[in-house]
Amino acid sequence: MDDSTAKWANAVAEAELSGPLPRRWSHSLGVSQRTAEVAELLVGEEAELLASAAILRDVGYAPRLAETGFHPLDGARFLRDTYAADERLIRLVANHSYALLEAEERGLKAVLEVEFPLLDDQRLVDALVFCDMTTTPDGDRTSAEERIAEIVGRYGPASLVGRFIRRAEPDILAAVGRVEAVLAALGAKGTSKAITPASW
Fold it and tell me: How many Å apart are CA 27 and CA 29, to the nearest integer?
């Protein structure tokens, strides 16, 4: 995966989201921009993979792609079936921000698990959660706590999404906390050395 992959990902996401869903596109751009802040935590081409997943993770919201109504699954299927995209990228999109918990609420957990197994790379998973859950719907910075509260307020606590986000809240806060702790440690040491899997 190289810089051309991120450019392709941006073009695909823009084509699908910017016209029909401009606010969702603004959010996606904001999440993508946050990846620059955590790039130092990743090794080699992983930063490019993260940037691509960040811009594409909500592509399944595009009206023409919404087959199941569950955007992580619809987006992942689109990337697999239309573009034969990188498997790691597809699995990150399918499972971003603890989507498996929402899939369970929707009766789609088994489908998601079989088609797109969880990616076994905690750094990438945490980094994507951090970028997504510290970005407002308009693409601005926020805290994970404020983001969760905004989602609950927008959908309602008794809604499917409201129930999901409350279930996912401990995991989201833990992932964001891990990323923030490593960023703080790197900042204190004044180094940009990437964190290896063993030290994560």
Answer: 5
Q: Which two tokens stand for residue 141?
A: 């910075």
Q: With H, G, I as helix, E, B as strand and everything else as coil, classify residue 156.
A: coil
pLDDT tens digits, 12-54: 999 999 999 999 999 999 999 999 999 988 888 899 999 999 9
CA distance between the termini of the chain: 23
* Close Cβ partners of 2 (under 8 Å, ≥ 6 residues apart): 45, 48
Query: CA-CA distance, 11 to 34, in Å (whole number)?
Result: 18
Place of tokens 């906390």: 177
- Is 176 within 8 Å of 98 (Cβ atoms)? no
In angstroms, rounded to a whole number, what is the distance separating the alpha carbons of residues 94 and 100? 9
Which DSSP string do the residues of 55-105 spell out, in sequence order? HHTTGGGSGGG-SSS-HHHHHHHHHHHHH---HHHHHHHHTTTTHHHHHHH
Residue corresponding to tokens 């940037």:
51
| CA-to-CA dists, residue 97 to 1, 103, 133, angstroms | 22, 12, 8
d(CA 118, CA 124): 11
Residue 50 CA to residue 200 CA, distance in Å, equals 17
